[in-house]
């Protein structure tokens, strides 16, 4: 019994150390506080295989639309390729925004990103071309530190607006999303902190 307790204590200590490392390595940006920006950025979230919105994706889009309608930004940039399903995430998100009444001219699509880092690496030149310098990033709670880190890495000035977890996502599922995301963040620390190479 003592051996099990020791193993549990070691596991808890290691888990705490790993979590702390992730939190330090990926600092969180300030949350949006009624401060106008130029653009709302929605990094990719998977759609269904038939190109429909999942509950998580719906929550993120609803939050982006709410900010847009309140006048906090003039554009919404959606980013994501066909990674988890055959559907291009940016196209699904753009269609969802149009169905919610967002003008096509206000939607910027980035259709090739394969992961969070590329969401912001590929968005940055699009923002520069349009001279959009301040962003509000809309994402779910377990993704905000990772999104904020990569926005900062690619010199995108931003705040975060957290979309609420949908009712369909249980607390247990949220815990799994946090654990999975933070584990990936920990493994990606060496890659995340690589300096951008000059072309």
Question: Overview of this structure, please?
Answer:
This protein is of the alpha/beta class and 199 residues long. The radius of gyration is 18 Å and the shape is globular. A five-stranded parallel beta sheet has the order 3-2-1-4-5, with helices on both faces. Helix 1 crosses helix 6 (171-187). It has helices spanning 2-25, 55-69, 89-99, 116-129, 144-153, 171-187, 189-192; strands at residues 39-42, 75-79, 107-110, 134-139, 157-162. It contains seven helices and five strands. Helix 3 links the parallel strand 2 and strand 3 (107-110).
Strand order of the largest sheet: 3-2-1-4-5
Give the ordered list of helices and strands.
HEHEHEHEHEHH
Decide which structural class fits the backbone: alpha/beta
- Tell me the name of the CATH homologous superfamily: HUPs
Low-confidence stretches: 6-12, 195-199
The CATH class is Alpha Beta
Characterize the overall form: globular
CATH architecture level-2 label: 3-Layer(aba) Sandwich
Question: End-to-end span in angstroms?
Answer: 59 Å
Question: What is the residue-averaged pLDDT?
Answer: 84
Helix content: 40-55%
How many helical elements?
Answer: 7
Major β-sheet annotation: 5 strands, parallel
What CATH calls the topology is Rossmann fold
Number of domains: 1
InterPro entries: Cell_Envelope_Assoc, DUF218, Rossmann-like_a/b/a_fold
Signal peptide: 1-25
Keywords: Signal
Domain DUF218: 38-174
What are the defining features of this structure?
five-stranded parallel beta sheet, alpha/beta, DUF218, 199 residues, Rossmann fold, signal, 13% strand, single chain, 7 helices, Cell_Envelope_Assoc, disordered C terminus
């Amino acid at each position: 019994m003592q051996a099990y307790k020791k193993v549990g204590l070691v596991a808890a200590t290691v888990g705490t150390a790993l979590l702390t490392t992730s939190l330090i390595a990926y600092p969180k940006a300030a949350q949006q506080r009624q401060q106008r920006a130029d653009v709302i950025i929605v990094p990719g979230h998977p759609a269904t295989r038939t190109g429909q919105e999942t509950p998580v994706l719906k929550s993120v889009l609803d939050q982006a639309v709410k900010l847009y309608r309140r006048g906090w930004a003039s554009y919404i940039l959606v980013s994501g390729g066909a990674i988890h399903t055959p559907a291009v995430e940016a196209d699904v998100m753009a269609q969802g925004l149009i169905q919610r009444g967002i003008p096509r001219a206000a939607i910027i699509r980035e259709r090739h990103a394969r992961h969070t880092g590329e969401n912001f690496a590929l968005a940055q030149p699009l923002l520069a071309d349009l001279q959009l310098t301040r962003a509000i990033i809309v994402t779910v709670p377990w993704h905000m530190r990772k999104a904020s880190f990569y926005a900062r890495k690619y010199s995108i000035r931003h705040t975060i607006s957290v979309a609420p977890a949908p009712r369909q996502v249980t607390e247990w599922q949220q815990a799994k999303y946090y654990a999975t995301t933070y584990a990936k963040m920990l493994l990606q620390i060496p890659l995340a902190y690589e300096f951008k190479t000059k072309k």
